[in-house]
Design brief:
single chain, 182 residues, mainly alpha, 65% helix, extended
Length: 182
């Protein structure tokens, strides 16, 4: 070190150099390609998985229609919608994810679920069912996308009205969707 230097650079040894090995270009592994190939192999099962999730949502709604909104029933409806919201885009049903997110927002932000218009919940569930069951028709994708956007608008309008005196909820209601666009 020089006498007039104001600093000293310390170079840390890199222990990873000992474990790295060089691979021929012909042997290079592409994990993305492997994942895409695995997903393609499973893609036939995606529709079945989504049908099971959509049926679970309908069953939760049927329980609520029969017995009312208990804490357990509301939780099951929320979980079913939340699972669809999380899985739908991955499985190729992005419009179902949008409708499911809208239903989750209603369940999460409505001050009293018993006062939510039953038609609003029913329309969300029917939309999700239709999107999942009719997904194979080319014209249904555009209709499903538009339907999901309209449901979100109606749900937001309702939630803003019933939460007008609850500012802590209004911010979340007015936040943009976190579901990937379709």
């Amino acid at each position: 070190m020089r006498k007039d230097a104001t600093h000293h650079v310390i170079t840390q040894p890199n222990p990873l150099r000992k474990v790295l090995r060089r691979v021929d270009e012909k042997d290079i592994d592409d994990p993305v390609a492997r994942a895409e190939k695995a997903l393609a192999g499973l893609s036939g099962e995606f529709k079945d998985w989504m049908l099971v999730e959509a049926d679970r949502l309908s069953a939760a709604h049927a329980t609520i229609l029969k017995k009312g909104f208990s804490e357990k029933a509301a939780e099951e409806l929320f979980r079913a919608a939340h699972d669809i919201k999380g899985d739908a885009a991955t499985f190729g049903y992005p419009s179902a994810a949008v409708a499911a997110e809208s239903l989750c927002r209603i369940i999460e932000h409505a001050p009293d679920l018993d006062k939510v218009p039953s038609e609003l919940i029913k329309h969300h569930i029917n939309a999700i069912q239709a999107i999942v069951r009719d997904h194979t028709r080319l014209d249904s994708v555009k209709v499903a996308s538009e339907l999901s956007r309209k449901l979100r608008g109606v749900a937001d309008e309702y939630l803003m009205h019933v939460n007008r005196d609850r500012p802590e909820h209004l911010e979340a209601i007015m936040a943009p969707s976190i579901v990937p666009g379709d």
